């Protein structure tokens, strides 16, 4: 199993944890905000579970599948995090279609709300794109 395949399995676990945040007592406040920072709804949970299953399948399938997952997932999540940082909502959970734009805001809460997608996406894209073992 290659390092990229192992990384996909780590992403599977991380994304399943993200999907379960709303269901762990004490992690959400009275307003439904996870860690008091961001709200997760059924669309977010579905996105995280689908992404986790994609990561699992890619990780178990092959190095090439893992690399493809990391690049595609990484760019999608990184873009979603950047978009969310500047508008308040992302596109992967359809938030831009169900909420009016909150406009750009340079604040710590906005950064922390989008940091998971920025970090997960950035690391995944970096790992997939820097891979020296390009398989044809």
Automatic annotation (TrEMBL):
Keyword field contains Transmembrane: yes
Domain of life: Bacteria
Key words, A-Z: Membrane, Transmembrane, Transmembrane helix
Residue ranges of the TM segments: 7-26, 46-62, 69-91, 111-129
Keyword Membrane set for record: yes
Protein name: DUF4383 domain-containing protein
Organism for this UniProt entry: Ruegeria faecimaris
């Amino acid at each position: 199993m290659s390092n990229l395949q192992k990384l996909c399995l780590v992403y599977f676990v991380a994304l399943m944890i993200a999907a379960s945040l709303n269901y762990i007592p004490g992690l959400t406040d009275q307003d439904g905000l996870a860690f008091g920072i961001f709200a997760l709804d059924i669309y977010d949970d579905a996105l995280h579970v689908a992404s986790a299953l994609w990561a699992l399948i890619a990780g178990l399938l092959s190095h090439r599948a893992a690399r493809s997952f990391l690049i595609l997932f990484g760019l999608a999540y990184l873009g979603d995090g950047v978009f969310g940082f500047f508008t308040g909502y992302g596109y992967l959970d359809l938030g831009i279609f169900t909420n009016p734009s909150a406009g750009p805001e340079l604040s710590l809460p906005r950064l922390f709300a989008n940091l998971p997608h920025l970090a997960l996406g950035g690391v995944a894209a970096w790992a997939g794109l820097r891979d020296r073992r390009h398989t044809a």
